Amino acid sequence: MELVISVLDANDNAPQFNQSVYKVQLLENTERGVLVIRLNATDRDEGTNRNISYSVQHVFPQDGKDVFWIDKNSGEIRLRGELDFEDVGLYRLQAGATDQGNPPLSGHCKVLVEVLDVNDNAPEVWVTSLSVPVPEDAAVGTVVALLSVSDRDSGANGRVRCAVWPAAPFGLVSTFAGSYSLVLREALDRERVSEYEVET
Ligand SMILES: [Ca+2]
Ligand SMILES: [Ca+2]
Ligand SMILES: [Ca+2]
Ligand SMILES: [Ca+2]
C-alpha cells in the first residue's frame, strides 16, 4: 500500500524585498510617467500565500504623495507629478508588499528619491534704491542705484555675473553677495548727454 501525505501550505512567510533601501536620482525636469524604479519582493509560500501586491504607504514630505504612483501588480513606481529641486530635494517613500494569505503578511522597504538641480530659473535683478536724477556735478564714485541679483538654482546654475551697458559713464561694483552698486565712473556733462538708459 502506498500512502500519500501532502503538506498544506500555511502562510508562514512574509514577502521580502530584494533590497531594504532603494536609491534613485532624478533630474528635476524629468517628465511625468517616467519609470522611477521597479520594486521586487518574493514570498516563499505557495498559491495565494505568495501572491503579492505592492503599495506606497508613506511619502515624506507628505505633499509628495501625489508625485509618485505605484503599480500594485508589477511594483513599478512612476512619476505622476512634477519635481522641483527648489521645493523638495529628497523624497522618502515607505513601500510595502502584502501577500493574500489569511491573515496576510507584509514586507517593507524604503525608497529614497534624490532630486537633482537643473538650471530652470533665470537670474532676477531688482533695484533696491535709486537716486535720480543725478546732478551734473556729481562726483565720480557717486552711487546712483543699488541692485540686488538672485537666482533660485544651486551651484553653478545659481551663480550670476552682472554687467552694465553701456560701460560708461556708469559702472557696477559688487558690494556683497548678490548686491551691486551702480556708480558714476566719469564726470557727467548734461550739455552733451542729458539722459542715459542703463541695462543690466
Ligand atoms: Ca506568504
Ligand atoms: Ca525648479
Ligand atoms: Ca533648478
Ligand atoms: Ca539659474
UniProtKB/TrEMBL annotation:
- Give the highest taxon in the source lineage: Eukaryota
Coiled-coil regions, chain positions: none
UniProt topology in membrane: Single-pass membrane protein
Localization per Swiss-Prot or TrEMBL: Membrane
Q: Which Pfam families match?
A: Cadherin
Keywords on record: Calcium, Cell adhesion, Glycoprotein, Membrane, Repeat, Transmembrane, Transmembrane helix
* Record-level GO cellular component terms: plasma membrane
Gene Ontology terms: biological process: homophilic cell adhesion via plasma membrane adhesion molecules
Annotated Gene Ontology MF terms?
calcium ion binding
Query: Could you tell me which residue ranges the Cadherin domain spans?
Result: 18-125, 126-198
Q: What is this protein called?
A: Cadherin domain-containing protein
